[in-house]
Predict the structure of glucarate dehydratase.
Amino acid sequence: MNLAITDVRLTPILVADPPLLNTQGVHQPYTPRLIVEVVTADGITGVGETYGDAKYLELARPFAERLKGHQVSDLNGLFTLADQVAVDRSRVENAVDVGGLRGVQTADKLRLSVVSAFEVACLDALGKALGLPVHALLGGKVRDAVEYSAYLFYKWADHPEGIPAEKDDWGAAIDPAGVVEQARRFKERYGFTSFKLKGGVFPPAEEIAAVRALAEAFPGHPLRLDPNGAWSVETSVEVARELGEVLEYLEDPALGTPAMAEVAERTGVPLATNMCVTTFAEIKEAFTKGAVQVVLSDHHYWGGLRNTQQLAAVCRTFGVGVSMHSNTHLGISLAAMTHVAATVPNLHHACDSHYPWQSEDVLTERLTFEGGKVAVSDAPGLGVELDRERLAELHRRWLDDDGALRDRDDAAAMRIADPEWVTPSMPRW
Ligand SMILES: O=C([O-])C(=O)C[C@H](O)[C@@H](O)C(=O)[O-]
Ligand SMILES: [Mg+2]
């Protein structure tokens, strides 16, 4: 068996995305992703997926060049190689990732977001070579299916008129009735029984009303609200008081560990985060201050599936819960998320996934949700197959783009509908 990498293919693509609203703006009609393939000397191909914006591509290209001859089994070596790739400082000088709403930007985090796709691709190739599923390479599954939550968004029916976009059949959701209707559809189509509403879009009173309407329509179902740090401590405490009874957790009500710690001290509602704890370096302060009760893992920016397991172990040590975050992603990442989630004993919350919002994929067969769960594949590797024709079409869309959509920019998308729009300064309310 020859596990040496002989070829690496990087394919940036643009995938359709509905007009989903968040505190920074609205999703663009197409969003960038990067598909990574590693090919071994034996002709086995492994696939991975990560963010596709320019700053990730700029790192992925020189990193890929260093991989020739690297063993797909040498996962630790990926991190050593990544450290050799310089990060353009201008890429990380802003304190917060503008498009992604996922916390601080550092050179390390940028590298980890790139390495994660290669780690997944190497695990996929290794699994195929050994005839073992990825979860087995991670120590084995502790569950046969992984539960996901419905990721509800305030949403327009369509992208602004006149700009090229794919049509979706979800309709608008801009008030409590619309949100409940969207949740009903999610439940009908995929069987989800827990719901997360992306907040920070409308004044808190409107979002409180939407969550109350969900609680009434779906009694006993776990509910979450996530304004991405758009509220002051006072507002956060007020919302927590109003919704304390019905929330499973409140996600990133306020920005930063000190503000989250203050909210936690003044409310009994568990606080979750994918913004103030997004790197190992941020754990100590947040956990010792009791700022968060649940950390949303994400194998992309934590640096892969094994780092996700390490994060879960740290959380277990400190009695902090684990859930899972998601940005726009395709089936390769959903498969990777499912494999790692299947191996984490202390993952007791349904994971987030944008996947139902993605009408396009690069797989020959889409992954499916049954009863809100994705079955854990026991096929070798990730258990997915790349649809090369589809990949080529979505890459063609990326090539044809004039650059406007190659970097996710929710504020720019919002300015098309509202030319006065500027990214709100935080706290917004
Ligand atoms: O849980 C979160 O904070 C997210 O999923 C951040 C994402 O960027 C989401 O808000 C989005 O895509 O609009
Ligand atoms: Mg969040």
User: Anything to note?
Assistant: The first helix runs from residue 54 to 65. The mean pLDDT is 96.
